[in-house]
Amino acid sequence: MTTVRKRYRIGALPWIGPAMAVIFLMVLYPAYEMVKTSFMSIDPTGTSHGFAGLSNYRTLFRNPNLIAVLERTVIWTISIVVITVLISLPVAQILHAKFPGRRFVRYALIVPWAASVVMTSTSWLWILNGYYGVLNRILISFGLIQEPKQFLGSQTQSFTWLIVVAIFVSVPFTTYVVLAGLTTIGEDIMEASTVDGASGWQRYKHIIFPLLRPALLISMVINLINVFNSFPIIWVMTTGGPGYSTDTTTTLAYKISFRNADIAQSASMATINFGIILLFIVLFLKVSRWRDDS
Amino acid sequence: MKRMTRGAAVVSALTLAVTMAVGITPSQAATTLTMIAADYPGDGHTQQDQWTDFATRFHAANPDITVNVIVKSWNDIDQYVATQIASGQTPDVVNKGDYSAPAAAGLLYPASKIVSPATLADILPAFLNNSKYNGVVYALPDLASARALFYNKDLLAKAGITKLPTSWLSLTTALGIIHRKLKGIYGYAIPLGPEEAQAEFNIWSGGNGGTYYNYATKAWVLDSPANVATATYIKSLVKKGYTEPNPDKCDRTACAQALFAAGKAVFINGSVFLGSWLKSNGGAKLNVGTGSFVSNTGHKPVTLGVQDYFTAYSKNGNQASIQKWMDFIYQPANYAKFLVAAGGFIPATKSAGVKAASDPALAPFIKLLPNAVFYPGDIASWNSVKGQIQQGIGQAVTGDPAKVLGQLQTAAAAAK
After folding, report:
1. CATH match for A65-293 among 3.30.70.1350, 3.30.300.20, 1.10.3720.10, 3.40.50.2300
2. Cβ contacts (< 8 Å) between B81 and chain A: which residues?
3. Residue B90: is its pLDDT beyond 80?
4. Which among A44, A239, A243 is the nearest to B383, CB-wise?
5. Could you report the predicted ipTM of this complex, rounded to two decimals?
6. Torsion, CA B244, CA B247, CA B252, CA B258, rounded to 10
7. Which of A196, A224, B200, B328 has the fewest CB neighbours in a 10 Å radius?
8. Which residue among A153, A239, A259 places its CB closest to the CB of B245?
């Protein structure tokens, strides 16, 4: 009995082997290289000059923009994840209801999700363009503004627009996960609650929402990771500018590496980034009492 | 049955792996040179075509040497080259805008080893002087460019301005008139967005006696009083609405040149190739004049000279082949083709310079060159400091000039 099981396990190796190899080569090894690089001294040509201790981290912590960037990253991640859920819940509810043309609306919602984020961001960049943008044109023709506005000019405005676009691309995925959750709720429970005289709101609060929790949690964790690491939206629309005023830690790491030619310092930023996202996820799972459901 | 299937899968997977491994084993009989070249504006794909043509003809003449030229956009090339070196795939030849960092790291052949003495003698000494590190020429200038003040003649006439401003004071007055008389037109398009902020600011501060680097004290001086005063002056123009709004967001091509091409800006800092760029980007009908930049009272106007370089890396030990290839590039007939493909720059060789001096498009720039200031390209940390300047200096004219320049100075002093 045991020998059979053992053989069976070894026999599984050819099947899980490639997956394990991929994890080692594509995930663990690069992560190891990243952490190692963050302790090296590397000149702008890419030549390594050996171990540098904590000096990269020290330089990074002296960066006058770092604190603001960290704060912004937290605001960026939390606001997008929370607002996305707040929008997705009712949208999923609507798409769950039966109405003519529902299939069409469901397909339409996929578009911003299916389109490449770079494409979407580029479209928004042109919509918001301060000289030729279509949004300016619309607002002017309705007489709402007199002169074209620089939507991506100031820090507050451009950061707000970045968040709007990020929500725009996150909503479809979240909605679909919630929708999938909704379809798993059995008709019988709903009928039973109606028979027991529950109002619509009571039904949502006490039956639907608790049953949606697993789906909601999964989508939120995935969003958390995606949004935190989000690079293309910011890069395409503002390149983190003006200056460093719309950078998150992800774009800052990129700039340190490829604009300021300091690969090692960038690796230390990326390592810290990695730590932050782990912390984010652990905190989130704790707050949401993940284990209670599993 | 199940076992057999499993065994068959293992065997076929192994076979596949072995075939692939065999497939990618290189068969190196002759020398292969790798060159990474920046993509000059030209018009479209001319550069890639030109390099492919060069490589093909060179290979025909030297069958034992194959040259692979990888053309990269200016946005990506620094990053690409650094990544290649970091991952052990050092190229043999690189054509881009800097050389000092690899020279300082000891990665380069000196210029005397990458071209024959005859070719070296044909290169203009002024350009070779800007190609040294610790007194040794480590890079070969491939071409150069200079800037001039471009202006829209029609708009200037419309505003009733007949004389070009020569001092900051008269510039302020002229921009004020434009602001009052021409609604929706920006007097001066000042691109201090990341694309070319280091060039724009260098020209302005040069006209106020400012520089980025002090060779006497061997130190970066980004927050020198002259630079702070320059930023403060530009800030005053921005505040009055004499420039486009948000110059710190304005990139050279997509913003400043586009505004100028659309007839929405009167003055702009333009490079040698701006004329041809305007033709293919909607500014063909503009009535454009060129002049010298405006300086602060008591200072001479400057222009910015920019030269780019060929550098050769010694890691692969292909010195003899590299020299053949570089001599081939600098053959007058080939070099002329290179210049055309790049899009009308100032040549770096004596033989081509003679011809260029009679070219009406280039002549005014060549005349400005003696007054040109150059980037401190021979300082090892220049490329890194340039990145800092590009990201940050725009904020000096929208925020607090002294504070922003002070931060840049701190970062520059710490740069490797």
Report:
1. 1.10.3720.10
2. 45-46
3. yes
4. A44
5. 0.79
6. -20
7. A196
8. A153
